[in-house]
Amino acid sequence: MSAPQPVARKPRADVVRNRARVLDTALRHFTEHGVGTSLEAIAKDAGVGPATLYRHFPTREALLAAALDVRGEALLEQLPSLKDAANADQTLRRWMRALEDYLSTFSGLPEPVLTALASYDSPLAANCEKLVAITDDFVDAAQRHGTARPTVRGRDLFLVTLLLAWTRNAPIGDDALPTLRNLLETGYSTR
Fold first, then answer.
1. Per-residue pLDDT tens for 125-178?
2. Do 184 and 153 meet the contact criterion of CB atoms below 8 Å apart?
3. Cα separation of 109 and 183, whole Å?
4. Spatial CA neighbour of 78 closest among 129, 138, 124
5. Closest by alpha carbon to 157, among 91, 77, 64?
6. Phi, psi for 165 (deg, rounded to 5)
7. Element (H or E) spanning 65, and its range?
8. Quick check: 175 and 113 in contact, CB under 8 A?
9. Nearest-CA neighbor of 176 among 190, 165, 191?
């Protein structure tokens, strides 16, 4: 007979509330001030001390990863409608635009995402790899239909989309975006 397994205790209600309050406040701060916003200001606005913030989110990257998970839910909800596009090329284009919107969620986001791609121990790494894998699926479909070059990889397009997201928030922004998007699409396309 095996030993009884310990029963996982449900977190206290105040712990759950504090985490949710910190995350909601962080979403607002990241949206208004970018990813470099003050963590102390987030804790203060959430009505908790810095220790409480760091207990739930030990690093800025951990808090940013949690905030992106919240925003990523909306991106992932788009997948079924994106896959209903008439052809693989159009589907890939729609995904790239949705991904660009997502990566532009917070000012300054491209830099920590780029860092996470090179570091598997970053809390953002799993999120990035998931999005690269989804991009790979769209690229593979376009390649099977002959509309994407066989040498293009999802990671390549993810990185270019990260550049577009950075451009959207840069001072050169909107004027360059249509040309850069066109370069991206003609760069991977076989047409």
1. 989 999 999 999 999 999 998 888 899 999 999 999 998 888 887 776 567 777
2. no
3. 22
4. 138
5. 91
6. -65, -40
7. helix 60-77
8. no
9. 165
Residue 73 region by backbone torsions, left for phi larger than 0, else alpha for psi between -120 and 50, else beta: alpha
Q: Retrieve residue 89's tokens.
A: 């090329």
How far is the CA of 137 from the CAs of 66, 103, 130, 132, in angstroms?
Answer: 24, 18, 11, 9
| 95 in Cβ contact with 134 (< 8 Å) | yes
DSSP classification of residue 12: P
CA dist 131 and 139 (Å) reads 12
Two tokens, residue 132: 């690269």
Q: Which of 5, 40, 10 is nearest to 25 (CA)?
A: 40
Q: Is pLDDT larger for residue 122 or for residue 21?
A: 21
| Residue 191 confidence (pLDDT) | 65
Q: What's the CA gap between 22 and 33, in Å, rounded?
A: 16
Amino acid, single-letter form, for residue 85? A
Strands (E), the chain: none
